[in-house]
What we know:
It is a single chain. By secondary structure, the chain is α/β, with parallel strands linked by helices. It folds into three domains: 2-33 and 97-214, FAD/NAD(P)-binding domain, CATH 3.50.50.60; 63-95 and 217-284, FAD/NAD(P)-binding domain, CATH 3.50.50.60; 291-402, FAD/NAD-linked reductase, C-terminal dimerisation domain (Enolase-like, domain 1), CATH 3.30.390.30. It has eleven helices and 22 strands. The protein has helices at residues 2-17, 33-57, 131-142, 162-174, 225-228, 263-277, 306-311, 327-332, 365-373, 378-381, 393-402, and strands at 67-71, 74-77, 80-83, 87-89, 93-95, 108-110, 123-127, 146-150, 178-180, 184-189, 192-196, 202-206, 209-212, 216-218, 232-233, 236-237, 250-252, 291-293, 299-303, 316-322, 339-345, 351-357. It has a five-stranded parallel beta sheet with strand order 6-13-7-8-9, with helices on one face. It has a five-stranded antiparallel beta sheet with strand order 18-19-22-21-20, with helices on both faces. Strands 1-2-3 form a three-stranded antiparallel beta sheet. Strand 2 and strand 3 form a beta hairpin. The longest helix has 25 residues, at 33-57.
Amino acid sequence: IPAKVFLRSSRLYRECTEAGPFGVRVAGASFDVPVVVERKNRIVAALKRGVEAKLKGAGVEVVIGRARLVDRHLVQVGDDRLEAENVLIATGSRPAVPPIPGIGAEHVLDSDRVFDVAEVPSSIAIIGGGYIGLELATYFREAGAEVAVFEMLPQIAANCDGEVSARLLQALQRSGIEFHLSCRVLSVEEGVLRYDDGSGTERTHAAERILNATGRAPVVAGLGLDEVGIDFSLAGVRISDRGETSVPGLWACGDVTGRHMLAHAATREGIVAVNSMFGIPDRIRYEAIPAVIYTHPEVAMAGRTEAELTRAGIPFRKATVPMGVAGRFLIENEGGSGFVKVLVGARGGEILGVHAVGDSSSEFIVAASALIETALTARQAAEVVFPHPTVSEALREAILKVG
C-alpha cells in the first residue's frame, strides 16, 4: 500500500507536466513529499483500523508478543502458552540484505524505510531490478530524481515474459531511468556505489541516496521451526498446495512461504489452509494468481510464460495484439504503447497465460486469472462480453486472435 500511495502522487505530478496534448495547461505544479508521506500514514492507519475491526467483529482474540512453537500444538508467547489443534504461520517477510559490504548501513535505504523519506533526492541508485526496485524507480523518476538501477541479471523483472520485460525496459529508459544490467554490486559507501559492469571492469556510481531493493526475505528465524521439525530454509517454509507444512497440523501462508510474495496470494493461501484444516476440499493454483508491477507503463500477468511452457515441454500457441486496439487505451494514453499476449494449449486451446504491458492492464488481469482458474478455452472465453469502451477489449482481441 505505501508504494502505491507514493506512485499515485508521482503519477499525478507527471500527468500535470504532460497534460498539454489533452488540452490542459498546468502551471507551477510542485511535489510536496511531506504531504505524500502524511497521506500514506493516514491511509495505512485507516486500513489497519479496518482489519482490527474485522478481527474484533469475528471474535478473534489478538495476543501481542513474540511467538515461538514449542510443539505442533503449543505456541509460547511471553509467559503464556497457547494450545491449538492447528497452527497457521504467517510471519511475513522483511527487506532482504544481500552480502554486499556496506549495504546494511544506516544511510542505505530499504524497501520499508524508503517510505518515510521526507524529500526527493537529486539522485538515487537502486540495487535490484525486480518489482520493488522498478516501482520505486518509477516513483523517484516521476518525482524529479535522477535514477539509476543496478541488476545482476540480464533483464529486469526476471519473472516476467521476456517480451514484456524488454518493452518495459525500453519505456523506463525513455522516461530517463538509467539501467545497468548483468552487473554485480561490490560495495556501498555513503553516496558511492562500486560495481563490476559485467565485463570484469570495476566502476563507481555517485548518488545522493542509495536504495537496497533486492527483494524480501521470509521471517523464519526464532519461530521454533527447527524444534518441531518443519521443512524450511532461508527461502521460506515449504507447503503443499493445501497450505500444510511437513508437520501435520502446522500450516503456513504468505511471504513466509517464499512462494508468491503478494498480498492477494497470501490471502488465498490463508483461505486454502483454513479450509483444509476443517476438511473443506481446496487447493491453491499458483499459476492462476495474477501479478502487477505498478510502473509506467504497468505490467500485468497471470499464468505461465513462454519460457516456462517451453521448459515444461508443453506445446502452445500464442497471439499478441497492441493495446491500442482498445479505444479506451488511446483515450487514456496519449502516445502510449503496449501489448497483450495470450498463450493457449496447442491441442485443447485452454488458456495458459496472459501477459500485458501498458497502463490500465492491472484492471483487466483479474479476468485473465479467472479464465485460467476455471480452465476455459480461448473459444469459450471468446463468448464473454467485454464492456466498451474499456482497455480490457485488448484482452478480448488477443483471445479472438489466438482462438
